[in-house]
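Reopening this one. Same input as before:
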Amino acid sequence: MSKTPQGELVKSVASEMVSFLKNGEINPGFVESNLEFKGIDRIQDLESILRIHFVLSDEVVDFLEELPKRVRRIKTESEKEQIRRKGEIRGRVNWSRTVVEQKRSNDRSIFYSENPSKNYNVSENLVLKKLLSIIYVVLDNDLEKPLEMDYNWLKRLGEERELINYLKNIYRRNVHVERIKDPESYVLSERDVSIAENSRKQLYKEAANLWNKYRRLMDSEMEDEEMEELLNETLILPGDAPTMFELYAVFKYLKKLKNEFEIQKIEGGSSQIARFEGNGTEILVYHDSTGGIRFFEGLDKFREDFESEDIENEYLVRFGKSTIKHAEMIKGLLDKDVSSMYSGRPDMLVEHREDGDLKKLFIGEVKYSGSEHTFSTGLKELVQYLYFAQDDDGYKLGEEGENFELKGILFMDKKEFLEVERLEENRVMDDSLPFKIEIYDPEDLKGVG
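Same output, byte for byte:
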């Protein structure tokens, strides 16, 4: 039975990630820790991805190719600088100001003279240096390692090593560019950009056009197709297909929640990957995390019970004693503590809270497979999570499952082997269960959005 192609998973993950990243609706730390980018150490947010995309564009590379011959004719404005000197005259004397100062100070050795100078901080140059600073930072920081590794996703830029070195030298050492003030010290005005756009020099026209393009990118006006191309074809490196399928399932479930609740902006330092609100309920979504729930059974609290003679079930006695003996042997041989009878961490956790109190708990497990054996394994893990989930108030599954909604969600790549009559709207049809279990595959999730 063939699995969902990895390329299809990557395309879907890229598309969904664009949607959530654009509006700050997903934790960028989640993106960074789960998606590997070729040769790039840190992708902190959407802006860092967009900056790289901008510098890789043909328009920027074309601009850099023309830069060496154009930068020699950089624009300046002449200024007459008034310099106060004592005992000497250099340049043309400003007699009106000199006479006033001599009378005021009663010192006839003071003179004001006019010395011509060049002003580099004209609007056109401010636009140019701001643009060059963005390109320089991306080349010198974000793309330093990829350029060394010569990745093919660098496209034309990867073939322009001399041009890249030239740009760095221009920015750091060119006498004219250096005299334009530090780009971090000013904010470009609309007037500055307009003046550059209407300049007779192509250097400034193109600089202004590229600046406007960059600004549109930062304002999230980039077309989704462009963004998906960047993520799908140039930057995303799927470490393995099961991981991509896991992300696919998580993004699709977030989209499902977004159709029902209002998604909130989320900061990078949050432990959740996403947060929703609606009807007085706050929904917190976690990936590969226990969130506010524990899935852990300490070994010590069972030790005394299993060493007593009170347990009549011989299997439970042997299971407990074998677990305890294993822990003792590991301590003796490896000097490592085995502290749990059971511990786990689900692929996805969804907490529904009202006034901070947990009201519903949905637990998700993801398996990139369509085999009955993997289905059985995933279902077993999911059921264990449901039975062992607990917080400070104790187990979330009561003896009869009373007063609490608990649901398990199993994402499979294929589920054709399941008999249709055993399923109704993806639910396991067993009234004896103290919880609900839903089963999804990509066909079920394609309609979400």
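So the earlier flakiness isn't reproducible anymore. For the record, DSSP finds 17 helices and 18 strands in the chain.
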